[in-house]
Amino acid sequence: MDVALPLLGATSAWITPPVVISVSALIFTLASFWWIQVRRGHPRVETGHVFSGTITGNKIILYIPLVFHNPAPATLVVADIKLRLSGGAGDENSPDRRALPKRMFWIAFHGSVYPEQGKHRQYAMPFAVEGRKSVERVIEFQWDTPETQLKDGPYTATVEVLALPQRWRRRRWSSVCTFQLRTDLWSGNRNALIPRTNDPEFYEAIREVTG
């Protein structure tokens, strides 16, 4: 009978050990259900070292391959993406000082980093990432009438994502991935939309092969 006595010492108290155990079990069950089935998370984004890019006086275009991973069980929606460029190795007279930081807009996405003729180019639209799954996208970012030709790399590129839904109906952007944009490795054909690399070792290896 002692096990059923009130925990607070009062003979009329309802907080008895069986009640505490039952309430704790209920709380644990609800918390577990929320964590395993309902919890919403933030996207994790990764990229590789190969991308495509072109720089002209009228426009800068970058095709960046991204993998969006949703670590939480509930589906999330990637509503918008931007690429923020900053930094640079130029001096105080470099055009970068006036042009950067700059956010490039998501225009479309593709099936590969190499622009293939005849392949469908799908314009930017929200896409879903199911719980505990990943989605691959090659995102096309553009910058019209750029004030710089990005000749003084490397630059810091930050992928910013607007993922929905958010708490209290806020629309807050999140910085989810940061990498170096090595435009200083671009040798010739800067106006050609061709595959590029951000890896100096890979770049040197290709130069040795191609001469």
Question: How would you describe this structure to a colleague?
Answer:
There is one protein chain. This protein is α+β, with helices and mostly antiparallel strands and 211 residues long. It is 18% helix and 38% strand. It has 3 helices and 11 strands. The chain has helices spanning 17-38, 96-99, 200-210, and strands at residues 44-47, 50-55, 59-69, 76-87, 102-110, 122-123, 127-129, 134-144, 155-164, 174-181, 194-197. Strands 1, 2, 3, 4, 5, 6, 7, 8, 9, 10 and 11 form an 11-stranded antiparallel beta sheet that branches.
Q: What is the number of E strands?
A: 11
Q: What is the average of the pLDDT values?
A: 87
Q: Percent of residues in helical segments?
A: 10-25%
Report the biggest beta sheet as strand number plus sense, adding barrel if it closes: 11 strands, antiparallel
Shape assignment:
elongated
In whole angstroms, how far apart are the ends?
A: 90 Å
Question: Per DSSP, what share of the residues sits in E-state strands of 2 or more residues?
Answer: 35-45%
SSE sequence, one letter per element: HEEEEHEEEEEEEH
Evaluate the radius of gyration: 26 Å
Q: What's the total helix number?
A: 3
- Spans of at least 5 consecutive residues whose pLDDT stays below 50 are none
Would you tell me the structural class of the helices and strands?
alpha+beta
What are the key terms here?
11-stranded antiparallel beta sheet, 38% strand, 11 strands, elongated, alpha+beta, 3 helices, 211 residues
